[in-house]
């Protein structure tokens, strides 16, 4: 007969290490960022903000400076997130990064979550009425089933 060792609780070894939050400048994405920030703070996880720069083929074909415009949006988002996190500096310890990917939002978030080895994904609910019928990025991420996905209203 073998003797059983008492199980020991390992403090701080469970829970997510990387939380990906999709941001696009919408109100629901900023609520998702705040929610993800709280999760990351409580879990001691890295918060990875991800902005997916859309590929606007029609605009590029007409000579519009699409890449410059989406780069400006990414820069603006990063500044807003930096300002938001600076408000809590010294009060809360939060590690965060900002990443940009190009493509459609769903594919970009999947790529980001895979490359960053995400343990969880947080996104804002779609604010477009048609997505209730066609399906939103959030619904597609949930159906992918590779990480826990939190959809923030």
Automatic annotation (TrEMBL):
Pfam families: Usp. InterPro entries: Rossmann-like_a/b/a_fold, Universal_stress_UspA, UspA. CDD domains: USP-like (cd00293). SUPFAM superfamilies: Adenine nucleotide alpha hydrolases-like. Residues 17-153 form the UspA domain. Belongs to the universal stress protein A family. This is Universal stress protein.
